[in-house]
Design brief:
mainly alpha; about 75% helix; Tet_transcr_reg_TetR-rel_C_sf; HTH tetR-type domain-containing protein; DNA-binding; transcription regulation; about 200 residues; Tetracycline Repressor, domain 2
């Protein structure tokens, strides 16, 4: 006999489908408008406000879940990027895929930044950061990427440029068709190993 307090498999499946709809609606709504409300998201998901709160106690919790979902989807895409061979060409390939993901989720990240502490955001991006760090280290070993600046600063600079390009695109100052080339040229110019005579500060 199943206890009244124990969800049946069908109830669990229904709840999982409801959660999936809400998370998808949150990703879409927040990607369009980082200030989207719980009511906006519930309406987009086709559920009532009480149903949404039955799965997510706060807007912050829902925003985090939406960001996690987007990052997991993005990680699957980036995991398929060929990072072998020349580090510069591998970085250009990684940037092309990363730009598309950042462009799609820039507003979602803005929403997350307004409700989640910086430390939590750092944790959520740790896998992506490790991938970039590993590629930069390999480029340094190949002698094509600079070693005179902290690795953390190089990774952060790449992050700033990607998000800056997304903001410029949303503002209409950077065409989406040009963004991949602009981002790659900017990041690679920063990462490139400087000439020996330029390594010392006058």
């Amino acid at each position: 006999m199943v206890s009244a307090e124990t969800p049946t498999p069908r109830r669990r499946a229904d709840a999982e489908r409801s959660i999936a709809r809400i998370v998808t609606a949150a990703r879409v709504s927040l990607s369009r408008n980082p200030d989207a409300t719980v009511d906006d998201i519930a309406k987009a998901a086709g559920v009532g406000r009480m149903t949404l709160y039955g799965h997510f106690r706060t807007r912050s919790e829902l925003v985090e879940r939406a960001l996690v979902d987007a990052l997991e989807a993005g990680d699957k895409v980036l995991a398929d990027v060929d990072l072998g061979g020349d580090a510069r060409k591998a970085m250009a390939r990684l940037l092309a895929s990363s730009w598309q993901l950042v462009a799609e989720s820039a507003a979602l990240l803005t929403a997350a930044q307004s409700v989640l502490p910086a430390g939590r955001l750092q944790d959520l991006h740790s896998d992506a950061a490790e991938r970039v760090e590993g590629l930069i280290r390999r480029g340094q070993e190949q002698g094509v990427f600079r070693t005179d600046l902290p690795l953390s600063w190089l990774v952060s600079s790449m992050h700033y440029i990607l998000n800056g390009a997304a903001q410029e695109n949303r503002a209409g100052r950077l065409d989406a068709t040009q963004a991949t080339q602009v981002v790659a040229a900017t990041v690679l110019s920063i990462l490139s190993a400087p000439a020996a005579e330029n390594l010392t500060t006058p």
